[in-house]
Each structure stands twice: as structure tokens, then as C-alpha cells.
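Here is a typical protein record:
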Amino acid sequence: MYPQGRHPTPLQSGQPFKFSILEICDRIKEEFQFLQAQYHSLKLECEKLASEKTEMQRHYVMYYEMSYGLNIEMHKQAEIVKRLSGICAQIIPFLTQEHQQQVLQAVERAKQVTVGELNSLIGQQQLQPLSHHAPPVPLTPRPAGLVGGSATGLLALSGALAAQAQLAAAVKEDRAGV
């Protein structure tokens, strides 16, 4: 039709700008390639977001399961604390006055153990080889301003277990001495 070397005629006023078919095809081809590159980059971005979404969902499920497990464990710990408190309340009247005071002091101290102290004790226990005797709970005063939050049941449990170990040792000493 038109020779390739032909240039469009200059515009005259009121006349629309005309392109040759080859120029139009080249522009369409360029636009198509540009749109295809955009589509490819958007497709890659979409795949990246889909993989991130899958990863986030996996994390959500994992955290949900951990939260559920911790909730169950907290209920178990609360029940253990309740039962141990009942046992202590039943046993304490049968102890000598001196041992009663020691047990009551240990129980009160157990109620005041902070999370930091508990973590410190756990760290010390992990460093020491396992032994038959539980380490005594230190009777240092609780720092002011620290309040035991949801870990109070767990802290009371650890203190009650330490008090129970001290109580068992005291009972063995009493029996051995008699």
C-alpha cells in the first residue's frame, strides 16, 4: 500500500493527524509489550502476596494453637494450685508450731515470687545437674511495684511445690528424730 519510506504529510489546520498502518501497528505492539510487562510484574507481585498470605495464615494457626494450649495449661495449673492449697490447709494443723510458721512463710513467699525471680530459678536449675533435693525458695522481699498478673497461679504453684518439698524434708527429719 504505502511505501515504508513514506512520511506522513504535514498537518493542515482542521485536518486530523494520520498515522501509517505500520506506525499504528508498531505503537500497538509497543503498548501490548508494555502491558504484558506490567501484567507479568503484577502477576509476580500477586504470587508473592499469596505466598505471604499463606505464611501469615500458617503463623496464625500456630499462634492460635499455642494460645489454646497455654490457656488449657493455665487452667490445669490453677486446679493444681487449688488442690495443693487444700492439701496444705489439711496438713498444716498437724505440724509443730515452728514448722507451721515455716510452711506459712514459704507459702506467703511463694505468692510473692516475681516472674523474673522464677525465670532466674529456672535458669539456675537448668545449669545444675538434676538432684533429689529441690532448691529452697529464697525469702527475699518482693520488689515494690511488681504485681503478679496472670502468672500468679503458676507462681503460687512453684512456691507450693517448694513448700511441699520443705514440708516433706521436715517430716522426714521429725520421723528420723523420733
Q: What stands out?
A: The helical segments are 21-91, 97-111, 115-127, 152-177. The longest helix spans residues 21-91. Residues 64 and 171 are 45 Å apart (CA to CA). The chain has a mean pLDDT of 77.
